[in-house]
Automatic annotation (TrEMBL):
Its EC number is 2.7.11.1. The keyword Chaperone does not apply. This is non-specific serine/threonine protein kinase. SMART domains: PASTA (SM00740), S_TKc (SM00220). The gene is pknB. The lineage of its organism: Bacteria, Bacillati, Actinomycetota, Actinomycetes, Micrococcales. It comes from Glutamicibacter nicotianae (Arthrobacter nicotianae). The keyword Cytoplasm does not apply. InterPro entries: Kinase-like_dom_sf (IPR011009), PASTA_dom (IPR005543), Prot_kinase_dom (IPR000719), Protein_kinase_ATP_BS (IPR017441), Ser/Thr_kinase_AS (IPR008271).
Length: 636
């Protein structure tokens, strides 16, 4: 829309006597975004206005207000800023008040457009991901979870700066760091986390998973999971392991594979615990530093040693003998008793030594048991046989054996469509637990049969049947048919029932609804009727007898319509049959006497009868021309 074009009904040109609407620059699921001029600060801004058709939905209005509130509390160069909010008054066109927000105007392309253009390499992907992660670190530090990270919500400015936007379904975490108080499934299926797919509560690590999906698509140009419906994609997020980026797209550095595997972990505790940590790992990988996930080391037990026997002895302090009234001589003769304290320290040392030995033994046992448990966990197991099992049963069996499953499809002449054909590694192979096993599902035989029941079906029904058979419709031609209705199928090329490769094109031959009239003249009536009423002609016949001397009686000498003419099915053909005309009735000749007396006015004078008059023609001469008597005429 230009400045001179009318704005939508109910939308004023000037909002709050400050923001002048110029043009429509975007349209989302619940609001329109307009370019406007802020006349107070003399700058371009983006004004996001809730559309009238959604303003009556309280949930949409709350979401719109929540976005404004969430972003208003955030101030970061990688987040599109919100400058102002308000509501447009109700009008005769809009019964509801329309909330709006005034945002930072950003020129550039969405990340979705950048990916579609295909101009993304590893360094650009890491740069963009770093910008998104910086924005999320700031958001998470302010207890705001975005919950809808996807390419359409990331802007890349003309100068290459990254801006995160659309906090419409963001949720604020409380100060005790509990998760969002909703179990509703929100977000976009190809980018939301397993906990979102399960409808569980989410936290900042859900955003980190979504950023991992974003980076995956940046380097491979496709999301980690795709499917025919959001439900199927969600199912894969919960139960399947994505292929490594280097396996999906040639040229992707395998150094990114372990980082992607960690950020897309199904369990939150196994992922990066901050968006910044994820971005730092990517930057290190870009500089050639491989990522190694820190595994928990087995616990070691240290025993407190309180002292040795030598220390106890040297630490013993001899006490002087107590004073006594006895004579010293008698005292010297008494056998001195060993000090009780010395005996007590020696027993304690022995006890502690025994305890230490027992503790060392227990610690050694636990360490050895931990090593054995880890070895058992990593011990290879055999891949089970899944041949001709249904896809669901095969998945369940492989998962019961601790394997991760990646489904592939292939043609098979031996296995029914939808059943398992094989695994990779093959059945019986010894593979480490929790490894990824490719499960191959049959798409049926690559040789498909053209359905024989296509004949006498409508063109639409025939097209649907061919698609269900895994075939494509090629050229469409038309032929005459006495029995197949107009535009219904007569046959195909290749012929009905023949075997062709899956995906091949099959030409359709449709009926014109017309019949070519055969030649039936010079046949007998029986032959003509049999010819016209045959199944491959199917025409009606009517014989019409016509009196004529030109043909022998009973001859079929004319047909209408004529031979080789195309007529509608079941048309009437009229055939003319020669019939001899009736013989003329004989007339009675008068006798000579009657002829003489028949004209009483005849003259008796023979000369009068013999003499020709001037008006009577002269008898012909020898040349066949009449002789003339009398004077010659002027023309002679």
């Amino acid at each position: 829309m230009s400045e001179v074009e009318a704005l939508p009904p109910g939308l004023p040109r000037m909002i709050n006597d400050r923001y002048e609407i110029e043009s429509l620059i975007g349209r989302g699921g619940m609001a329109d975004v307009y370019l406007a001029t802020d006349h107070v600060l003399s700058r371009k801004v983006a004004v996001k206005v809730l559309r009238p058709d959604t303003a009556g939905n309280p949930m949409v209005v709350n979401r719109f207000r929540r976005e404004a509130k969430a972003v208003a509390g955030l101030s970061h160069p990688n987040i599109v800023a919100v400058y102002d909010t308000g509501e447009l008054p109700a009008t005769e066109y809009n019964r509801e008040r329309l909330p709006f927000m005034v945002m930072e105007y950003v020129t550039g392309r969405t990340l979705k457009q950048v990916i579609a253009a295909g101009d993304v390499d590893g360094s650009v992907a890491v740069h963009i991901t770093r910008g998104v992660c910086d924005a999320l670190d700031h958001s998470h530090n302010n207890n705001v979870v975005h919950r809808d990270i996807k390419p359409a919500n990331v802007m890349v400015t003309d100068s290459g700066h990254v801006k995160l936007m659309d906090f419409g379904i963001a949720r604020a975490l409380d100060t005790s760091a509990t998760m969002t108080q909703t179990a509703a499934v929100v977000g976009t299926a190809q980018y939301f986390s397993p906990e979102q797919a399960r409808g569980e509560q989410v936290d900042f690590r859900s955003d980190i998973y979504s950023v991992g999906c974003l980076f995956y698509e940046l380097v491979t140009h496709q999301p980690p999971f795709t499917g025919d419906s959001p439900v199927s994609v969600a199912y894969q997020h919960v139960g399947e392991i994505p292929s490594a980026p280097s396996e999906v797209k040639h040229g992707v550095d395998p150094i990114f594979d372990p980082i992607v595997a960690k950020v897309l972990s199904k369990e939150r505790d196994d992922r990066f615990q901050s968006a910044g940590a994820f971005a730092s790992a990517l930057e290190d990988a870009l500089n050639g530093i491989e990522f190694h996930d820190d595994e928990p080391e087995p616990s070691t037990y240290t025993l407190p040693i309180y002292g040795t026997h030598h220390e106890a002895e040297t630490g013993f302090i001899a006490q002087s003998a107590p004073r006594t009234s006895q004579h010293p001589v008698f005292v010297e003769d008494e056998a001195p008793e060993p000090p009780a304290r010395h005996k007590s320290n020696r027993g304690l040392i022995i006890l502690l030594t025994v305890i230490a030995l027992i503790a060392v033994g227990i610690a050694s046992f636990l360490v050895i048991r931990s090593i054995q448990a880890e070895a058992e966990k990593r011990a290879p197991i055999a891949v089970p046989e899944v041949l001709e099992m249904s896809e669901d049963d095969a998945r369940e069996l492989l998962r019961d054996n601790t394997f991760q499953v990646r489904v592939e499809r292939e043609f098979s002449d031996d296995v029914e469509q939808g059943k398992a054909t094989r695994t990779d590694p093959e059945a019986g192979s010894m593979v480490a637990k929790e490894s990824t096993v490719a499960l191959y599902i049959s798409d049926g035989s690559e040789q498909r049969t053209i359905p024989e029941d296509l004949a006498n079906q409508s063109e639409t029904a025939a097209r649907d049947a061919l698609r269900e058979a895994g075939l494509e419709v090629g050229e469409v031609s038309r032929e005459n048919s006495a029995t197949v209705p107009t535009d219904w199928v007569i046959g195909t090329s290749p012929e009905l029932g023949s075997k062709v490769k899956a995906g091949s094109e099959v030409d359709l031959i449709l009926s014109t609804g017309m019949v070519t009239v055969p030649v039936v003249t010079e046949m007998s009536r029986e032959e003509a009727e049999e010819k016209l009423s045959a199944d491959d002609v199917g025409l009606e016949v009517q014989f019409i007898e016509v009196e004529t001397d030109d043909y022998a009686e009973g001859t079929l000498f004319k047909q209408s319509p004529e031979a080789s003419e195309d007529v509608p099915q079941g048309s009437l053909v009229k055939i003319s049959v020669a019939k001899a005309p009736p013989a003329p009735e004989p007339s009675e000749e008068p006798s000579s006497s009657e002829s003489e007396s028949s004209d009483p006015s005849e003259s008796d004078d023979p000369t009068e009868d013999a003499s020709p008059t001037s008006d009577s023609p002269a008898p012909p001469n020898g040349n066949g021309r009449p002789d003339r008597t009398g004077p010659p005429r002027e023309n002679d």
